[in-house]
Amino acid sequence: MELDKTQIHKNFKSAINMTAKEITAWLETDESKSVGQTKPGMAESIGRQSAREIIKILGKKKSDLTDADYAHMRHVVSYIKRHRAQEPRNIETSRWRYSLMNWGHDPVKALFEKGT
Predict the structure, then answer these.
(1) How many domains is the chain partitioned into structurally?
(2) Which of 43, 47, 53, 60 has its CA 20 to 30 A from that of 19?
(3) Residue 110: predicted pLDDT
(4) What is the b/e burial string over 4-15, where b = at least 16 CB atoms within 10 angstroms of the residue's CB?
(5) Tell me, what's the pLDDT at 65?
(6) Range of 40's domain?
(7) Using CA atoms, how far apart are residues 45 and 102, in angstroms rounded to an integer?
(8) What is the largest CA-CA distance in the chain?
(9) Would you give the distance in Å from CA 33 to the centre of its chain?
């Protein structure tokens, strides 16, 4: 099945509300390091690995994106959508928020962008 790259790109840009610089700074925090699932033999969580890929994707021109980039973008959008549906009461200091931020999406920032 051919991926609709235009739609994937649009969905990714909509879901990612952190800049590459913000994500990079976030990855240096203890909070970022404290959340996420780690596969056996891996030093870093899946979300933190994803964040590094997101940073690379954000640094590319659209014309330079590969099929692997589009596949990862689709995976990121799917993760954010599923995870957002599990919103807890206290989002500001929740592991839920920290995990989403490892995937390039800050739900607190999203609330402010909506004017809520």
Answers:
(1) 1
(2) 43
(3) 77
(4) eeeebbebbeeb
(5) 97
(6) 5-114
(7) 9
(8) 43
(9) 15
| Consecutive 10-residue averages of pLDDT for the chain (116 residues) | 82 96 96 88 90 97 96 96 90 92 92 66
> Whole-angstrom Cα distance, residue 61 to residue 112?
28
Helix (H) and strand (E) counts in the chain: 7, 0
Spatial separation of the C-alpha atoms in residues 54 and 19, rounded to whole Å: 10
**CA-CA-CA-CA torsion sign (90, 92, 93, 95):** positive
Residue 108: is it exposed, middle or buried by C-beta count within 10 angstroms (0-12/13-18/19+)? Answer: middle
Distance CA 114, CA 84 (A): 15
Residue with tokens 């509300």: 17
* Distances, alpha carbon 93 to alpha carbons 2, 60, 67, 100, in Å: 39, 31, 35, 12
